[in-house]
Amino acid sequence: MPFVNSDRGPASDDSSGAGPRPGMGPGGGPLAATDLARTRRQLTEATGAGRLDAAGLRQVLVDLHEFWLTSKAAELGIKPHSGLAIVAVGGLGRGEMLPHSDLDLILLHDDLAVERLSEVADGLWYPLWDANIPLDHSVRTVPQALQVAAEDTTAALGLLEARHIVGDEDLSSLLIGGVRQQWRTEIRHRFPEVVEHAQDRWRRAGDIAHRAEPDLKNGRGGLRDVQLLGALAIAQLTDGMGGLRPDSPNAGPQMAYHRLLDIRTELHRIAGRPREQVRAQDADEMGASLRIGDRFDLARVISDSARTISYSIDVGLRTAGNALPRRGLSKLRRSPIRRPLDEGVVEHNGEIVLARNAIPSKDPGLILRVASASARTGLPISASTLSRLADYAPELREPWPAEALSDLLVLLGSGHHMIDPIEALDRTGLWGRLLPEWGAVRDLPPRDAVHTWTVDRHLVETAAYASSMTTRVSRPDLLVLGALIHDLGKGRGADHSVVGAELAVQVGNRFGLWPQDVDVLSDLVRHHLLLPTIATRRDLDDPATATEVAETLGYDRVLLELLAALAEADSRATGPGVWGEWKASLINDLVRRTMRLIDGETPEEPEPLSPQTRALAESGEYAVSLTPGEGPHTFTVVMVAPDAPGLLSKMAGVVALNGLRSHSATVQGIETADGQRRAVNTFVVVPTFGSPPEAGLLRQQLIAAVEGKIDVIERLDARESSSPIPTIGSVNATPGIGAGAAAGSTDPAVDGAGHPKNAVPALFAIAPPRVLWAPAPSDDEVLMELRTDDRLGLLSRVSKVIEQQGADVRWAKVTTLGPTVVDNFCLRLADDTPQARTALADAVIAACPPPQPRSDDDKGDGAAGATGSGRSGVPIS
After folding, report:
1. For position 388, what pLDDT does the model report?
2. What is the DSSP secondary-structure string of 534-589?
3. Does pTM top 0.85 for this prediction?
4. Known activity regulation (predicted)?
């Protein structure tokens, strides 16, 4: 490297003799501007042994330009105490001069005479113009520069990177110190504009991690975002480039920044001009020059780096928003309340944090509870919480406990709200602990242009779309799990369906699935391309086509309906236009034809009561027992009461009112020894937080509910409407930034500093509710199956509706699979006509949580025709 410091001449040991040395003219004198331009070109176009790497080239260019400016300043009388100074901003200001970067300079003066300024400015600018060196220049006093910074956010961000080059250093210090002090003083008022400025840039340039030709400088996750983090650090709102864990992807934002900077340097060198977008035709050459690999390897590095920076800017903007001093009446507010969301998980100041009594080192499932709480509420996970989990949370033992799998299903059932929590876990190394197989597909670029996302993001997108289809299938848990891992076999040098099926067995066993469910999950991954391939390439009128599909799937109805839903979710997650009416009609037709070849399922029947439960039922009119379940936070509640209309609704309401989330319920009745009929209902529950209530309290409330002293539905409505948890929509008013960064938002649920206000509960439905009918074992009974997203007191509400419609619940079996419930009721209808069934189904659906509005791309029944349209009156088989 010829120069070490800008105030020194060329290194004395540079004696190559191959033309003029950088910093010297042809005759050994000071370097002319034309020689500067020629030397820039020689350094950029050098090959072989004379070629510098990207970082070395940037440093040499910085030294070269500083030497020229120092020499020219001496000629023009720009010296200490001269009232003149040259200040660099942009690339030279940051010490990151790229081959074709503009030279951004400010000629700073202490209110000198116009004649003197003109003489100096002409002597400085004209040589550079004549040499065709790109130049962005200005001549200002310190007050003038500060005024520009106060009025223009772009100019202010640039001046924050200003650096003294030569001349009156006191003058430069006045400007640099003044700009920074002004920035700190005014940041409270300017922060909304800063956020809007970044968002406008992201809208224009897009997301670097998922664009075919990304803008490395201006795109989301690019170089400008790291510079913005530096500006927020100067304002003392964040710690700037706080590093991620060493074992997290890409190690940290600083490394990601330098990787993108190296790629941008090589892009300038290859393009021969200041290009910011990586073009596909240049990618192979750039990858080889940087010793990264081919264009796919380069794309993976770019995606990895950009996603690390995106996560950092999310955290930085959110932290900055929360650090802003409050204004007006908000100053009088007390400190933010810590609101419990789950065991060991609370909301504080618009973020998900750990409860004070949470001990990550002793609670392996805490990671998934934090992530599922974030997805359910739309609140971002605090960076300190992620760091603490990464440092102390142990790995889950295999097989996972049922509670951990349930939390994972809640996360995967939250639609596109799962993306931010999963991204946060992935960027901090936590997602890889849960799914070690994820590393092979992380940031893996697609091999064809039809795919919008990297492979890992495509998997998450597929799971998000699949979560809106969970009520189409009888096993919503296997659907979202299959969607998450269906392409996990890519990037391993073999048929990804075959490799993925083997990995599915490994993953399913780790999750603690039953062996038969592991087989279904593996088959789902193995055959996830079967329906689209056959439907679009074979004659559907040929009976052999449907027979081949049925034989391939082993005449498994459940697997067929799962594949139908996964085919649509996979297509929608691939890219725009991949799923359409033509493809949907072909797959639906194939599924309908195949369904005709598969036998129906055996009707559900109640399980017999255990001896312990029967003894409890014989012990008295009212009885309640509460015993620990299989997991550390799981309990079994058994309630006994004289059988009567409306009893199930009251029992389920009492359970919900006490903060117990029902994972499953079994509703039965028996004849006691004294001839009385008693209802015996068993609930498997998990407390929302803390410990469950005493069984005696539940018994007292049950008696009060049966005797009409309390209205459980009324209390559930009041509890739901008064919940302080912010809604999804209100928190994420600024997509990708989080609550704290939404400062200045017009969303009425967010205050001026970006702090979320109290709102309705974040209980939302992703998939539309569906009611299906099937014959029961007894001729005078019928089976009704309800598939819907969960809601506070759902079983109590639905039971009351059934009872109000005049139906008698003979027995029921309720299962919660993540956020989706599958409730089977054996009913005796007073009027078993199609009209009565439709009225009952409509009333039941009205008690379920309505689905979120979806975009046009998400609408349509798609493959739902395989199992019915979901309207009331649809048979199960």
Report:
1. 93
2. HHHHS-TTSHHHHHHHHHHTTT-HHHHHHHHHHHHHHHHHH-TTSS-HHHHHHHHH
3. no
4. Uridylyltransferase (UTase) activity is inhibited by glutamine, while glutamine activates uridylyl-removing (UR) activity.
